[in-house]
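Design job #97: recover the sequence.
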C-alpha cells in the first residue's frame, strides 16, 4: 500500500504543477470555459493531454493494466474546456500510449473505457450544468468505469490493497486539483483585472497617468531619440457647461480614440489627467513640428457627434524633442510650449 500511496502522491503533484503552469501561461485569456475561443480550449486540452500522458509513466501495473489518475486531467479538460478540450486531451493520451505500447487486448480494453468516458463527457458538456457538478460527475464516471473493468478480474486482496486506496486517492486528489485549479484561475484573473484597472484609464481605455509615466521612463532609458507632445483639449470647461458632463466624457473618449488612431506606430498615447494627454514618439527627428501640427489638424477635422449634433473639437499641443536629458526636463519644455500655444489662440502646436 505504501507504493500505491507514493505513486498516487506523485500523480497528484504532476497534475497540480502542470495545471498551475497551464493557467499561468493562459492567464491573459482567463477564465477558461466552454465558450472560450477554440484556440484556448485546444491549448488547455493539449496541456491536460500531456499531463495524462506523463501520468502513464508513473502508474501501478496490476495484472497487466496501468492504474493511475488520468481521469483527473480528463475531467479537468472536460469541465473547463468542454467537449473540445476533453477530445484533444484524450487524443493526445491515446496516441502517446499507442505509439509506446502498440495494440494489445489490454490497450483495446482501455480504449473502450476511454471511448465510453469521451462519449458521455461530450453529452454532458452540452448540458447547462454547473462546472463543479460536471467535474464531480466526470470523476464519478471515471471511477465507475475503472470499477467495472476490475471487478471479477482481480483478487480480493489486490482490490483491498490497490483499488480501495486508488478510489480514495482519486476522490481526494480530484477535489484538491479542482479546488487548486479554481482558486488559481480566480486569483490570476483578479490579478489581471486589478492590473488593468491600475494601469488603464477607465474612460478612454488609454494608459493612465501612472502607466504613461512608466512607459515614458522606459523610453527615456532606451537612449534613442524621442519626442513628447503635451496635448490639452481646448475649451473643455465650456463644453461641459454647455452640454453637460456626459458630453465631456464622450468628448474625451473621442479625443483619446482619435489620438490613438493617429499616433505613429513607434509611439503611444496616454491620458495624463483631466483633459490632458501625452503622446510619446520614438525615433523621431526634425519633423517633430510637422507631426504635432498633423495631430492638431486631424483632431480638428475628425467630427465629434453628440446626440446627433456635430461639435467642433480642437487641441493645443506643446512639443519638445528629447536629447540626453531627464524626461522631467523634456516635460517642462513641452508644458511651457503648450502654455504658449494656449495663450496664442489655441488649436495649434508650439515647439519648446
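Job complete. Output follows.
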Amino acid at each position: 500500500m505504501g507504493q500505491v500511496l507514493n505513486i498516487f502522491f506523485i500523480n497528484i503533484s504532476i497534475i497540480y504543477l502542470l495545471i498551475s503552469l497551464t493557467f499561468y501561461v493562459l492567464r491573459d485569456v482567463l477564465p477558461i470555459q466552454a465558450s472560450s475561443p477554440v484556440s484556448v480550449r485546444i491549448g488547455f486540452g493539449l496541456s491536460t493531454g500531456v499531463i495524462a500522458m506523463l501520468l502513464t509513466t508513473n502508474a501501478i501495473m496490476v495484472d497487466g493494466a496501468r492504474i493511475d489518475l488520468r481521469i483527473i486531467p480528463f475531467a479537468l479538460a472536460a469541465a473547463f474546456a468542454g467537449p473540445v478540450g476533453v477530445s484533444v486531451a484524450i487524443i493526445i493520451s491515446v496516441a502517446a500510449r499507442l505509439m509506446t505500447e502498440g495494440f494489445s487486448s489490454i490497450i483495446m480494453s482501455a480504449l473502450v473505457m476511454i471511448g465510453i468516458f469521451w462519449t458521455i463527457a461530450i453529452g454532458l458538456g452540452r448540458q447547462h450544468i454547473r462546472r463543479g457538478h460536471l467535474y464531480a460527475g466526470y470523476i464519478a464516471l471515471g471511477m465507475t468505469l475503472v470499477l467495472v473493468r476490475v471487478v471479477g478480474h482481480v483478487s480480493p486482496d489486490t482490490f483491498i490493497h490497490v483499488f480501495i486506496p486508488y478510489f480514495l486517492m482519486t476522490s481526494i486528489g480530484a477535489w484538491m486539483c479542482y479546488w487548486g485549479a479554481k482558486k488559481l484561475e480566480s486569483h490570476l484573473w483578479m490579478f489581471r483585472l486589478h492590473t488593468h484597472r491600475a494601469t488603464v484609464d477607465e474612460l478612454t481605455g488609454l494608459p493612465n497617468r501612472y502607466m504613461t509615466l512608466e512607459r515614458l521612463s522606459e523610453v527615456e532609458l532606451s537612449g534613442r531619440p524621442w519626442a513628447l507632445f503635451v496635448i490639452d483639449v481646448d475649451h473643455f470647461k465650456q463644453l461641459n457647461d454647455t452640454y453637460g458632463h456626459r458630453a465631456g466624457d464622450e468628448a474625451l473618449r473621442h479625443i483619446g480614440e482619435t489620438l490613438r488612431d493617429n499616433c505613429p506606430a513607434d509611439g503611444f498615447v496616454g491620458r495624463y489627467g483631466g483633459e490632458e494627454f501625452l503622446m510619446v514618439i520614438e525615433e523621431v527627428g526634425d519633423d517633430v513640428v510637422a507631426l504635432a501640427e498633423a495631430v492638431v489638424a486631424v483632431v480638428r477635422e475628425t467630427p465629434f457627434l453628440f446626440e446627433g449634433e456635430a461639435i467642433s473639437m480642437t487641441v493645443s499641443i506643446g512639443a519638445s524633442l528629447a536629447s540626453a536629458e531627464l524626461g522631467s526636463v523634456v516635460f517642462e519644455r513641452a508644458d511651457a510650449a503648450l502654455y504658449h500655444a494656449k495663450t496664442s489662440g489655441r488649436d495649434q502646436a508650439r515647439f519648446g
